Amino acid sequence: MAFRLFFALSVMLFLAAGEAGKQMPKLSNKKLCADSECSHPILMARALQDYYPGDCRFIPIRQGQLVYVYAMLKDRGNLFWAGSVQNTYYGDQEARIGHFPSSVVEETHALMPATTEVKTTNWDFYCN
């Protein structure tokens, strides 16, 4: 009986540890946003091609999808933007902000100027 209880607790702890997130390397130390919280989209863009992410910091994008861009990374990460994908129907995909190469999208509508420089935090590159 004690072994079964120990085994069940061990499995639950293992599964709980698998659910925990992990810190990934920072892509950049700074980003440009519309506001200090990066809560307003800077622009809308349309995906020129499919993009399959290499890890959990990035979001998958399919050709033709609309992407709302919230931040543009600076310095060593200047090739990446942060945004969320908008499908044809909002319920198709859980809204999640992630990074993607700026080269896979083209700007369709400028919404707000990206004039606020914000320091990135570890949470910007945290994966669940």
TrEMBL record:
Residue ranges of the TM segments: none
Keyword Calcium: no
Keyword presence, rRNA-binding: no
Organism: Crenichthys baileyi (White River springfish)
Residues spanning the signal sequence: 1-20
InterPro entries for this protein: MIA, SH3-like_dom_sf, SH3_domain
Protein name: SH3 domain-containing protein
Name of a matching Pfam family: SH3_2
Any one Gene Ontology BP term: extracellular matrix organization
Alphabetized UniProt keyword annotations: SH3 domain, Signal
Upper taxonomic lineage: Eukaryota, Metazoa, Chordata, Craniata, Vertebrata
PROSITE patterns the UniProt entry points to: SH3 (PS50002)
Domain (SH3) ranges: 40-110
